[in-house]
Design brief:
Blueprint: H1 2-32, H2 51-65, H3 74-82, H4 89-102, H5 106-120, H6 126-145, H7 149-162, H8 170-190, H9 195-208
Length: 212
């Protein structure tokens, strides 16, 4: 009798776990099919996000889908403020940075690239390293275009210490670093040469921000 009751309890717990996992999978599928971003959000880490957290994210995505694409993504910003350590957070930061660049909100984009970088740079999983490389490449290019050479130089030093594999972003990062070296060299050369130097430096900045 006791054995039968025990087996019944085990089966009931197994079925509950299976239903919970199926529910999580359905939530993740809805999140990835939200079409708010070019790249679907994905969670990162060994532990799956809690179901209530995923439901909150889905509601935030639905609110953003119904809003002006050029507007600030307040619902998602609120989600991140409430769940800063969420397994969904690194992917959301990357996607929000891309969204803000498209509408010209570069300061907001910089903050999200920084958040994505800090959340992934020390994670050795392949998914995390891919996110870290993506955030670094985009963040570095934007810092260069805004003339924030000191911060970019510090970031380049950090990535050298971490030895992050850049994968497909390697060529883009190498190009950004080459431009950084040139702009620093020009700045040192012309720093005491007056107005003509400022004109030359400004022209160089325009060239540096061109693709290729």
């Amino acid at each position: 009798m006791k054995t039968t009751a025990y087996l019944g309890l085990v089966c009931a717990l197994f079925l509950m776990g299976s239903r919970s996992q199926a529910g999580d999978q359905l939530l993740w599928s809805e999140i990835q099919q939200s079409h708010v971003f070019t790249t679907p959000p994905e969670w990162l880490g060994e532990q799956a996000p809690p179901a209530d957290e995923s439901r909150a994210l889905l509601l935030a995505l639905q609110a953003c889908a119904d809003s002006d694409p050029g507007a600030r993504a307040d619902a998602l910003e609120n989600f991140l403020s409430l769940h800063p350590g969420s397994p969904w957070a690194p992917s959301l930061h990357l996607n929000l940075a891309e969204r803000y660049v498209r509408v010209g909100a570069r300061s907001a984009a910089l903050a999200h690239w920084a958040a994505a970088w800090n959340a992934t740079k020390n994670d050795k999983s392949r998914k995390a390293q891919a996110m870290a490389a993506c955030s670094f490449a985009s963040w570095a290019d934007s810092l260069l275009c805004q003339g924030q050479t000191k911060q970019l130089a510090a970031l380049c030093h950090e990535i050298d210490q971490i030895q992050l594999p850049l994968g497909s972003y390697g060529a883009e990062v190498a190009q950004t670093r080459a431009k950084l070296e040139r702009i620093v060299a020009y700045a040192e050369r012309y720093q005491s040469c007056g107005l003509a130097a400022l004109v030359t430096f400004a022209s160089l900045r325009i060239w540096l921000c061109k693709p290729g």
